[in-house]
Amino acid sequence: MAILLPSTPGIRGATPSLIDAGAVLAGGPGSAAQKLNRLGTRHALTVRLPLMRSEPLGRIYAARLRQAQRDGAIITFPQDGLTIGSPGAPLVNGAGQTGMTINLDGFAAGYQVREGQFFSIIIGSRRYLYSARTATTANGSGQMALPIMPMIRVSPPDNAVCEFAAPKIEGFLTGGQIDWEVLREPFTQIPDFTISEAE
User: Fold this and answer.
1) What value, to the nearest 5°, has the Cα angle with vertex 38 and ends 133 and 124?
2) N or C: which end of the chain has fewer CB within 10 A?
3) Whose CA is closest to 101, among 76, 132, 126?
4) Could you give the domains of the chain?
């Protein structure tokens, strides 16, 4: 099971990425290039942490990262400056959904998901990160058909939990090692690390 990384200290900065599973097919002489979109486009997040006191923060953060190297990591996806508000308790509304629109319910009536706002869906024991393609408002019953990016990678079951208030990215750490620098002050500096969604 993936390891939830500590929320303290908060991140100093982050670089989100969209990993495109598609490709551009070059056209022959006199013909246009074409974009081939494939299922599997997903996100990655490079995290920069602040300098932290070795006790207890540095010790705990380094320990969690060592576990995450084996089991995978979960961290809250940053959306600085976005006021999330009170979304309610959103859930997937109906099984078997595919494509680039997902039906949801359980929102607070009239809640608006903003264009580019991120959320995660929990399927089994794994989270999948998505963002809204357009601003969409829940109806009076708390339902909405939300256009999303990327397309649905794994069809969620009915009533799967959707995390809008605090979306999370889950995946594996890239690279083959985890480093942490112990300074004499005593502080710990953990180098940047990247979490990439597995699917």
Assistant:
1) 75
2) N
3) 132
4) 3-77+170-196 (no CATH), 88-166 (2.40.30.290)
Q: Cα angle at 88 between 78 and 141, to 5 degrees? A: 135
CA atoms of 140 and 114, how far apart (whole Å): 18
The encoded tokens of residue 36 equal: 């081939």
pTM of the predicted model, to two decimals? 0.92
**3-46, pLDDT tens digit by residue?**
999 999 999 999 999 999 988 888 778 788 888 888 899 999 99
Q: What tens digit of pLDDT does each residue of 65-84 get? A: 999 999 999 999 999 999 99
